[in-house]
Each structure stands twice: as C-alpha cells, then as structure tokens.
Amino acid sequence: MFTTPLDDHAQLRPLEPWQAPEFLAHIDRARPLVDPWIPWASLTTDLASARTTLQRYADLSSTDSGRIYGIWRDGVLVGGVMFTRFDAPSGVCELGCWLEEAGQGHGLVTRACRALIDWAFTERGMTRVEWWVAAGNTRSIASARRLGMSREGVLRQRYPHRGLRHDSEVWSVLAQEWPPAADRSAPASGDRAEIDRLTGLFMDSFTNTGGKTPDLRIIHELFVPEGRIVSNTGDDPVIMDVDAFVEPRQKMLTDGTLTDFSEWEVVERTDIFGSVAHRSAEYRKSGVRNGVRFEGHGHKTTQFLRTRAGWRMVSMAWDDEPDRFPE
After folding, report:
1. Model-wide pTM > 0.70
2. pLDDT tens-digit series, residues 167-194
3. Residues 264-301: pLDDT tens digits?
4. Between the CA of residue 79 and those of 83, 115, 221, what are the distances in Å?
5. Alpha-carbon distance 161 to 165, whole Å?
6. CA nearest neighbour of 281 among 302, 295, 260
7. What is the distance, to the nearest Å, from the Cα of residue 1 to the centroid of all Cα atoms in its chain?
8. How many CB atoms lie within 10 A of CB 264?
9. How far is the C-alpha of 39 from the C-alpha of 163, rounded, in Å?
10. Are 30 and 79 in contact (CB under 8 A)?
C-alpha cells in the first residue's frame, strides 16, 4: 500500500474494505459536518454499510472509474478525498472530499487534493478535473477556490437529500491551468502551516457566498497593531491602517453592495527567514457588485513577523488587474 506524506503528522493512503471498522468510527465522528452535504455519509451507519461503501469504491477502482483515499493524522483517520467519477476515455474526472473536526485547520484536504490532481494530469493525462458541491457548502467551495478552480455555474435543485432539493455548483480546473510542480509549495509544517492558516483566515473573512455573513474584525487579530495595508490599484497607492481597511469593506459586504463574493489564491510562494517571512501570491476573485457579476485577479505580497503571540502579518500590498464582467 502506498503512502503519501501531507505534512510531518499526516498521510494520504487508499481506503479499502478491510478498514470498514476504522472508517465507520471516523464517519460517526464526522457525521455532524458531512451529513448535511454528502448523501453517502448518511447511508454509512453500521459496519455492513461502511463495508458496502468502501467495497463500492474498490469495485470502481478495479474498473478504473473511481477511487477513495483516507487522510490519517497522527495515526487517526480524520478525512479523505476521492475520485467520485473517473472517465479516462473522455479525460474528465470528478473530485470530492470530507473531513472531521479534528482534521480541520491544517490544510490537509488542499494538499491531498493537489496530490490527486497532479496524478490525474501528469500520470493519467486527464484534461479536466471537476468539483461538484452543494451551493451552501462553504467549506467545500473554499477548497475549490484554494485549488485554483473556476466556478462554471449552478444547477438548480439538482438532487434531493434529507427531504430537500439542493443546488449544485460546478467548479473545474483544466490541465493547462494547473501550475507545474516547481510553482507549488512543498507540504507545510510548523511555521509554514501557521502562515498558511493566517492567509486562509484573511481571505475567508471576505466570503459572503451561500448566505455566510463575513466578519472582517478577525483581521485585527491577524495583524500586529501597527500593521499597514496598501492598495496600489489606482494612480496613487492608498496606505491604510487595519481600521481604515476593514470598516468600508465590512459595510460593502453586509449592506448588499457586494454579494456572493470570494477571493482565493491560485499560486503562491512563501519564504521564511528565521523570524520574518514573505508571501507572494496570484489570486482570483468573483462576486456581484450592485447587481452585476464580475470576476477579477491580481497579485498580493504579505510580510509576516514572529511575535511572542505567534506569527502575525506586518504589511500587505496588492495590485488588481481590471475586473472582467461576464456577458
């Protein structure tokens, strides 16, 4: 059985029918998080049904049409990723994920999914990896963004689950859009994992998709008190302290001016030098401004400092490309 390290504490490896007892115990712990969104999780309620779920994926693997993998952290199964559909002749596959609470906050799903996407594109020559997600599943949507996927549309009331019909969002990434291995960061651990976490909290604080209420006040906790944020998108740079940055954006994201908004990193590089660090990233964004949908991208640099309270942001500057308004 192969094992792929995800960080100093976590591994990715196949899930097989003989692991049904461990899988069932994990699903029972994860049930509050996964049951609302993943129909097969609600069907895995005892040892027989757990074995049936894993056997179904073993059968799919034997015909090269699907696969399932577990994520173990410190020897405990805490989540997984899978190819729910793998169609080699067409070059199209679909990726999915799940995670229990103990596995959250470590970037495990993102790194596990990157490993599967790498394999699909580089080893199997696939053309397209899809990500189908319930429209209200903000955690899964955030994962799709972090993987550099593009949102292609919504299929309204596509499937029933627990007495309700759910919309599905369709996201995807193409082989020619997937960055080479040299452009992606190594598995995170220690300081790097903490910097990843701070960056994720910063970007997630803006999200108001799926009815989520954004709360930019967390940005005060991410920056040192003297932190500065610079927008260089116009003729002259605008240099702000954290209060000046947060207040107008909190208003726009909660008063209806800017809805269905999110932004996410596509490619990043992080360099750590002792107690200071620098992160350079390309990011994308999408949303609805005053009733008009738009998409955009830009570049951002962030400086970090290790303080007695842990890593904190010191400064950030960004430059946006002009927004694009889909027809």
Report:
1. no
2. 889 999 999 988 776 445 444 457 888 8
3. 888 889 999 999 999 999 988 888 999 998 888 899 99
4. 14, 15, 29
5. 6
6. 302
7. 27
8. 23
9. 12
10. yes
In the block, which residue shows the tokens 């990726």? 95
| Pick from 144, 152, 162: nearest CA to 34 | 162
Please give the backbone phi and psi of residue 298, each rounded to the nearest 5 degrees, phi first. -170, -170
H or E, element range at 33: helix 20-34
CA distance 316 to 92: 38
Vertex 105 angle, CA 273 and 24, to 5°: 140
Q: Concatenate the DSSP letters of all residues of 68-118 into one string.
A: EEEEEETTEEEEEEEEEEEETTTTEEEEEEEE-GGGTTS-HHHHHHHHHHH
Give the whole-angstrom CA distance, residue 225 versus residue 130. 41
Residue pair 201/263 in contact by the 8 Å Cβ criterion? no
The C-alpha torsion from 208 through 213 and 215 to 216, rounded to 10°, is 20
> For the chain, first and last CA: distance in Å?
49
For residue 64, count other CB atoms closer than 10 A to its CB: 13
Rounded CA separation 157/85 (Å): 21
CA 309, CA 196: separation in Å to the nearest integer? Answer: 16
